[in-house]
């Protein structure tokens, strides 16, 4: 199975463990970190979403103009613009970037954060709206003739778009760990994304999504898992660095994007699962470390893989053995870590998968 690597870029530096030193929108830094990911061999980079953060589609357009092969996974929340407008927006961006756009659909798990943009629906209502939204989005990208829609959340007549994605559609990445998320995600997702949990828990989530897909009569999506690798030239140095990062989490005024909106009692199931793993112990499996999730309130993907590049590569391969084909990896030192991942970690994982694929071909012959 081939493997894809996704990083994360932002318009300013900083993270939960390192203070920002640039303005919120720094064009030079944005171009630099995008090029660093491209040079490091990443396939894509995620642009996150919050009610206070710069618009991802515009950031992607700027960064794409400064790179040539990198794809931009734009986080997008259904419900704040009409799906017909979103279809044209992202198809236009896809055309200008030469087909280098994917979408990360964020239904929203924090009621307070949703309300900052004026959304007062319940969680289950948001997933129902996402279902309608993505149904319209897909059809808007492919319909040759005008169509109408009369749903619970959206209603329009005689819509047809003259702008289409380069490849006919745009891949959709989906996340969420609740039953409502699974039911909606399997209907639309090309890739289903999880945060970095222990191997047994990821296997359970993969099985749950595959079961939901089978119940819906649809093929299962591909799977992605997100981690925060902390590398060192030796195991001891990697763990020393990890402890130093942990000591800074909480003492740094992180950019708003990284702050958990309800860290003491997170409403979203994904954060609850990370905190449950952390409560069971700081270390899991080969290299998974959950102390960073506990310290940050499980604000997004916050669990680390700690060790030498070889150790972390083997840990990623353990997840690949479960059926994971995409890894979102981002560091606590975003720019420097992206460069480091490209030196040894990404090549090591790809080399081992290529070796295994070649061995399987020989065996099959």
TrEMBL record:
Keyword Flavoprotein: yes
Key words of the record: Flavoprotein, FMN, Monooxygenase, Oxidoreductase
Record-annotated Luciferase-like domain positions: 13-325
GO BP: alkanesulfonate catabolic process
Pfam families per the UniProt record, alphabetical: Bac_luciferase
Cited Gene3D superfamilies: Luciferase-like domain
Record has Transport as a keyword: no
SUPFAM superfamilies hit by this protein: Bacterial luciferase-like
CDD domains the record matches: Alkanesulfonate_monoxygenase
Recorded GO MF terms: alkanesulfonate monooxygenase activity
Signal peptide bounds: none
Designated name of the protein: Alkanesulfonate monooxygenase
Species: Pseudosporangium ferrugineum
């Amino acid at each position: 199975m081939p493997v894809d690597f996704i990083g994360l870029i932002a318009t300013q530096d900083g993270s939960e463990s390192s203070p920002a030193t640039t303005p919120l929108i720094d064009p030079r830094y944005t171009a630099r970190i995008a090029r660093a990911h491209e040079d490091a061999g990443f396939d894509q980079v995620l642009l996150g979403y919050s009610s206070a953060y710069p618009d991802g589609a515009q950031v992607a357009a700027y960064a794409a103009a400064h790179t040539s092969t990198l794809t931009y996974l734009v986080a997008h929340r259904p419900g704040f613009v009409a799906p017909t407008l979103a279809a044209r927006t992202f198809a236009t961006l896809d055309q200008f970037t030469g087909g280098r756009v994917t979408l990360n659909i964020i239904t929203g798990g924090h009621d307070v954060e949703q309300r900052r943009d004026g959304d007062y629906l319940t969680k289950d209502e948001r997933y129902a709206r996402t279902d309608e939204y993505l149904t319209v989005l897909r059809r808007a990208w492919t319909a040759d003739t005008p169509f109408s829609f009369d749903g619970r959340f959206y209603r329009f007549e005689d819509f047809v778009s003259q702008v289409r994605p380069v490849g006919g559609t745009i891949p959709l990445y989906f996340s969420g760990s609740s039953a409502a998320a699974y039911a909606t995600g399997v209907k639309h997702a090309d890739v289903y994304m999880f945060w970095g949990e222990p191997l047994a828990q990821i296997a359970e989530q993969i099985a749950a999504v595959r079961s939901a897909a089978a119940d819906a009569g649809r093929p299962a999506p591909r799977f992605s898992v997100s981690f925060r690798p902390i590398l060192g030239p030796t195991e001891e140095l990697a763990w020393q660095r990890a402890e130093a990062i942990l000591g800074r989490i909480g003492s740094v005024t992180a950019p708003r994007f990284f702050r958990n909106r309800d860290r003491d009692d997170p409403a979203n199931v994904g954060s609850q699962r990370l905190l449950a793993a952390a409560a069971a112990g700081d270390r899991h499996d080969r290299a998974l470390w959950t102390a960073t999730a506990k310290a940050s309130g499980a604000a997004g993907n916050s669990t680390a893989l700690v060790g030498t590049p070889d150790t972390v590569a083997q840990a990623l391969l353990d997840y690949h053995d479960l059926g994971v084909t995409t890894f979102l990896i981002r560091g606590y030192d975003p720019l420097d870590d992206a460069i480091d991942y490209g030196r040894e970690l990404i090549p090591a994982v790809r080399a081992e998968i290529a070796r295994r694929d070649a061995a399987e071909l020989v065996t099959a012959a």
